[in-house]
Amino acid sequence: MKTGEPIDGKRVMQRILKFAKAAYLSVFTTVAYRAMRRKQDDPLGARSPSSIKIVCRYGLKNGLANGAVYNGLALQTLGYEVEQPDVTSVMRSPLKRIFCKRGGLFVFHCAAPQLLLLAWPLRRLIRSGKLIGYFAWELAEPPGDWPKYEDLWDEIWTPSRFSAQSLSKLYACPIRVVPHVLLKRGSPRGWRKGEEPLTFLTMADARSSLARKNPRAVVAAFRSAFPSERDVSLVVKLQANQSSKEVHTLLAEIGGDARIRVIQETMTRTEVDRLFSSAHAYVSLHRAEGFGLPLLEARLFGLATLATAWSGNLDFMSDEDSVLIPCELTTMRDEGGVYGEVTWAEPDVGAAAVAMRRFYDDPVYLAKVAKAGWEASSPERQLARLEAALRTPDVTSLMLNRCDI
Questions:
Q1: Distance of alpha carbon 44 from its chain centroid, rounded?
Q2: Per residue in 295-307, pLDDT tens?
Q3: For residues 386, 387, 390 and 395, what is the CA-based torsion angle, rounded to 10 degrees?
Q4: What is the pTM of this model?
């Protein structure tokens, strides 16, 4: 604040609260880490097998929460006993605790810096079992500000090989690729030219960087592919602050194009499912993905998928069952300020436009891609991959409640 300027009481209070929050988190982190870290006389072999606890802030209803829900459903389908402690309401009160069965696996779906906050309500229980951090990371280089609590957690699970390769540069503990699994399934979609608009869908959450999700590239590709056609539409689902600079730039580029519908309100799961069900193709011109959960959702709903040929989505997408857009790695500054300067993919917008146009010109090809992705992502295949990821002695020995073990 410059000398002579009037004092802004609201701004001063915001700074005080920000400082107080930072101070509290610093003290809490120190105390919680010392209280919960593994001791020398606390060997893993002494812990008793029990249920799998999928711990998350489910109340946030974001991508992390969705992944935790899906993970729990998949493990239950495989026959494991699963508990899903929700720490949303207790994280603001350090005196509150959550109760669940002792032993087994405690799997925390969060980013590493938040693990202590999620684990604290279970502090009396977590050392009775195996503590696992389920972390996803979107960039080729690991996060430089993530803590190394390797005497707190036993291992890290992550949804893709891309994420595992990045995190392995930071952590020396075991890192296991445990993919997301979706069990809800529709049927392959086709487009009836002349009877309905060809509808493309894309989604982006500003909390994980609109620049990374790159919806502007999707808009540019759509408008290049269809300069004047009226029987096409693009739905852009955003989770973003309507006043943000990134959103303003995106809306300005859309202009008055009535074929492009932007949805910014929070939607229920049922409403999101309707978006998938009413579209024919899902487009993700991302610059980086830790996994790409919406792409997998789209394939299960029977949409043809078109995505950048880089990062976590390549674990379940190939040229045989989707359209992969070529890209070049580039270094740039994240406009949203989430990552700072970063090296990631720059997808070829021209190639994406050609691919989108081909869906329009050749509905048979569109249907072929949709069916191939739907078949390749069947729940049976996904569950087989998950089971293979878990079937190693150090995991299955802690899952004796499973009916066939």
A1: 30
A2: 999 999 999 999 9
A3: 140
A4: 0.89
